[in-house]
Amino acid sequence: MGDNVRLIEVKENVLDDNDKVAKELRARLKQEKTFLVNLMASPGAGKTSTVIQTVRRLGETLSIGVLEADIDSMVDAEKVAETGVTAVQMRTGGFCHLDATMVTDGLSAIGSENFDLIILENVGNLVCPAEFDTGSAVNVMVLSVPEGDDKPLKYPLMFSVCDVVLINKIDTCELFDFDRKRFEEGVRKVNPNCTLFDISCRTGEGLDAWADWLKEQVKTHNN
Amino acid sequence: MGDNVRLIEVKENVLDDNDKVAKELRARLKQEKTFLVNLMASPGAGKTSTVIQTVRRLGETLSIGVLEADIDSMVDAEKVAETGVTAVQMRTGGFCHLDATMVTDGLSAIGSENFDLIILENVGNLVCPAEFDTGSAVNVMVLSVPEGDDKPLKYPLMFSVCDVVLINKIDTCELFDFDRKRFEEGVRKVNPNCTLFDISCRTGEGLDAWADWLKEQVKTHNN
């Protein structure tokens, strides 16, 4: 394991009101000039690949830290740390989502005040993470084309809490008969103001546009 | 909506011990000569397609009923009912998994005693459903190739509670750089006795072998 990666255990906070903890965390991060992105998706949609591609595009202009949530392994943090950024693996011990207290613990472990941008990779799950405000400045979800264009209909809460949807593996639309228009209509139905980017972590398509958008958000937030 | 499809609302049982309810349900289904399959997977892995393909192969020799769990929509039950089988959509109202009490309610709604085989499509989620015994005779999970070959490492509980893993979208291994051997090693590490089938609901590959296996299990259980 490299010097820039470590593991912490995180536990659910059952005593405090999560919304209150999240709100306080968001105010603190605004003061610290640290922009927190909460990245959510199904297992295998491409969260870690998106983190790596984002770091590659913004790592020279912004100081970036990565918090990786995982139930039981360290593979994601190790993969991400290979890019040179600091990564902390938050092991949830079977837990299905992150709450704002777990995220606060993760931010302390990484030393959030030292970073312009922190990317938080949530647990791979389209249900539970949507119910818990993490204190992030934006919620971003990755939907991969092989999952199908009907997902907004089936996981409406997740799509309604997102500020951005990254449509990953966009190069496989034809193979999986993915109707891009139908998908966007489904998203707009539950979340009219959501921003969409078509990306492919494999071919590189669309990643510059997403990274540029994110850089602008970080700049506005941290100034 | 056709005559063979209906919707019920299901609620979590917070009072009774789920393991006890599940054990009683399993005993009852054995007596009823009804084989219950609990089908679990990530969103978009191909659960509904697998149900449809299975019904097409076994619908003439077995009487089949389908219970579809979904957070908020009816699309899966309607899609499945088009094959002619009876389907009940169990709406969980945002809940992330099924417990044995919800399944008992679903089985009452469909009239389980009238069926040789009932396929239960659980909520699309690799975390929470693995923690709750549904009373099924077997647990089957669908892992789709685009999700990646590292999933057993990251969702060990799900892979450890499965009797069968169906590797769906097997025709896309090359495109997604999916190492079939590495995946199987990962599965075997947490679950040495698991049965694996390579399938593609798109091309039809491997589905006869899976259906034959299932038919044998139903025959043994119901005799």
Helix count of chain A equals 8
The Cα radius of gyration of chain A reads 16 Å
Q: Low-confidence stretches of chain A at least 5 residues in length (pLDDT < 50)?
A: none
Strand order of the largest sheet of chain A: 1-4-3-5-2-6-7-8
The helix content of chain A is 25-40%
Distance between the termini of chain A: 35 Å
Global morphology of chain A: globular
Q: What oligomerization state is this entry in?
A: homodimer
Mean residue pLDDT of chain A? 94
Sheet with the most strands of chain A? Answer: 8 strands, parallel
- Tell me the total number of β-strands of chain A: 8
Identify the most extensive interface between protein chains.
A-B, 33 and 33 residues
Q: How much strand content do the residues of chain A show?
A: 15-25%
Note the run of SSEs of chain A as H and E: EHEHEHEHEEHHEHEH
Structural class of chain A: alpha/beta
